[in-house]
Amino acid sequence: MLTFWQDYPEIQEKLEKVQALMAARLKINNEDIQNALQRFTSRGGKMVRPALFFLFAGLVENEKVDEKKLTKIAASLEMLHSATLIHDDIIDDSPLRRGLPSIESQFGKDVAVYTGDFVYTIYFELLIETMNGTEFLSRNAKSMKKILQGELTQMQSAFNKENTARRYMKAISGKTAELLSLSCLEGAYFAGGDRQLQRSARKIGRSIGLAFQVYDDILNFTVGLDEADKPILTDFRQGIYTLPLLLAKEADEAAIMPYLEAPEQLSRDECLQFAALVTDLGGITGSLMIAATLTELALAEIRKLPQSRNREILEEATQILLQRNY
Amino acid sequence: MLTFWQDYPEIQEKLEKVQALMAARLKINNEDIQNALQRFTSRGGKMVRPALFFLFAGLVENEKVDEKKLTKIAASLEMLHSATLIHDDIIDDSPLRRGLPSIESQFGKDVAVYTGDFVYTIYFELLIETMNGTEFLSRNAKSMKKILQGELTQMQSAFNKENTARRYMKAISGKTAELLSLSCLEGAYFAGGDRQLQRSARKIGRSIGLAFQVYDDILNFTVGLDEADKPILTDFRQGIYTLPLLLAKEADEAAIMPYLEAPEQLSRDECLQFAALVTDLGGITGSLMIAATLTELALAEIRKLPQSRNREILEEATQILLQRNY
User: Fold this and answer.
1) Which secondary structure element, helix H or strand E, spans residue A96, and what is its range?
2) Signal sequence span per UniProt (chains A, B) (predicted)?
3) Which residues pair with A97 in a beta bridge?
4) The complex's ipTM?
5) Smallest Cβ distance to A29: which of B90, B124, B152?
């Protein structure tokens, strides 16, 4: 659990408090759903959003900071993320999430709809307890709206052969970058950081978010291709046309287009051929370059912040978060 | 449109402003969904929640009241209701809603999930714009939670032969009464009513809500039985066991039980037989008595309020709202 942060015991400890708070809040009048929700949140993945929140909060020297309040706000970010994941799994019919059966596959779409709604409610409760009377309530509402619009944009461009790298960047800007940006901003703000730090936090969060999603989308083209028993190119086969293939399409539209007619019907071999084609046409290299550029943008901005041990930690953590194996 | 309130031009006019505001807020980056949402909300049914809100606001003499703010709050109540309806239709696979195709049947469950989420977001925006810094934000979050728990309770008791009248009342208390109660309370509060009026408003709203739902559930057993081309007993056939049949079951369990084995497989004739059985066993009469008692409770409480023209309107409106043809 949370082994990702084991080299940063301070962050890890705070994230464990977030998990405990989430478990305490996810009380619902159905034991099965409650257990599933608590398992779901206790796996927690890397808890990227709360982690970024605390990394930025750590940049502020403030002895009067209310740690319990920070824990609640960090939990609110993870709750919002969890609610969108639970609803996403309905759309994708995903059997698994974080290595466990998704709420939808365990309990069906009906329960998943209400369970996601329920998690949204806990998210609002946490916001109201910590931000009532501040402008951050409406910032949260705006972010939630952007995230949903990003999801809708992605859903509408599904199987759309006319999708472009530009539209892709817009969709992931809402879908992923918005919430990571908010996480960094809230960390800076609620720890008492000044305007300048808040501005930098938003900017850095946005770059990290974009890079994070591009790397994620590259992985969908490169990982597990030689494991015969696992489904491959899952996003592509659901009509989600991401950066690697969009860049390859820009390089040689005639070669790519035939695969976009009915990706869900392609055989495993055809998928492998397609992945090789995307690679040959520079789709992977191009995406890696874009992700690396976005990472560098984030790191350059981080290095502009006042020198401190916590800034170094943020710099390292950003590199680790965005360093994956290809 | 809104013909239900045509004898109350003051209420009707306010409700039209609510509709206009809702239409203005439901802007989304997909024209089809936006149009569907706007059609959905412009039908508006009776707009029971905003109407109750204004009926209670009307009880307060307050010249400084901010009408625009009241319009926004009334819209927030209808938005919350709409969001739950959109998600309910996913669960019920309802082809129609308010005489129009449901969002789910027009666009599929995927779009319906996000569209409902989107409407929740607009609801929060409206709350934040009007109640930031007040205790009503957390009251709203609590109500939303109760509504969801009510829905979940109902879903879990689907096809449950052990369901009881008591559990039924608990489920509708969350599912329907909670939001009607909140609507009355917010009307009293935001128009500047005192504690006593607020307490009465909550109580009256709760009784109206319970009566409203019981009447609605009676209708499912009595209306359209002679129209051969329409589906009948739709709730029952989806395993939603409501008051009429639960009372009939208390009267003669052995007679009712066989029908509860697999209601979705019953033929039209068997459904008609079942409806007749429920009536013969006093399920309809009993439910009507309970609904009438709840209505009387509401009216008695209304009559305790200080005498005024607007109190008379509230009394009449309550009777009209709860007066249906059986």
Assistant:
1) strand A96-97
2) none
3) A100
4) 0.84
5) B152
Cβ within 8 Å, pair A132-B129: no
Please give the angle made by the CA atoms of A77, B89 and A141, to the nearest 5 degrees: 25
Q: Where are the domains of chain B?
A: 1-132, 164-326
**Total CB pairs under 8 A between chain A and B:** 106
Q: Do domains B1-132 and B164-326 have the same CATH topology?
A: yes
Give the Cα separation of B109 and B178 in Å (integer): 27
Q: How many CB atoms lie within 10 A of CB B306?
A: 10
Give me B233's structure tokens: 């007993």
3-state secondary structure of B240: coil
Q: Which CATH class is domain B164-326?
A: mainly alpha
| Calpha distance B211→B215 (Å, rounded) | 6
Q: Is B110 in Cβ contact with A124 (below 8 Å)?
A: no
Using a CB-CB distance cutoff of 8 angstroms, which residues of chain A are in contact with residue B149?
A: 28-29, 118
Minimal Cβ distance to B138: which of A125, A152, A156 = A125
Q: Which CATH architecture has domain B1-132?
A: Orthogonal Bundle (1.10)
Contact between chains at A29 and B124 (C-beta distance less than 8 A): no
What are the start-end ranges of the E strands in chain B? 96-97, 100-101
Across the interface, whether the CB atoms of B152 and A113 are under 8 A apart is answered no
Cα-based distances in Å from B188 to B64, B76, B302:
14, 15, 13
Cβ <8 Å between B125 and A109: no
Chain A environment of B155 (Cβ under 8 Å)? 110-111, 114
With an 8 Å Cβ cutoff, the interface of chain A facing chain B consists of 28-30, 33, 87, 90-91, 109-111, 113-114, 116-118, 120-121, 124-125, 128-129, 132-134, 137-138, 141, 144-145, 148-149, 151-153, 155-156
Q: Can you give the pLDDT of all 326 residues of chain B as single tens digits?
A: 577 888 999 999 999 999 999 999 988 877 777 877 877 777 657 899 999 999 999 999 988 899 999 999 999 999 999 999 889 888 766 666 656 677 777 777 778 888 899 999 999 999 999 999 899 999 999 999 999 888 888 888 889 999 999 889 988 998 899 999 999 999 999 999 999 999 999 999 999 999 999 999 999 999 888 887 778 898 899 899 999 999 999 999 999 999 999 999 999 999 999 999 999 999 999 999 999 999 999 999 999 999 999 999 999 999 988 876 44
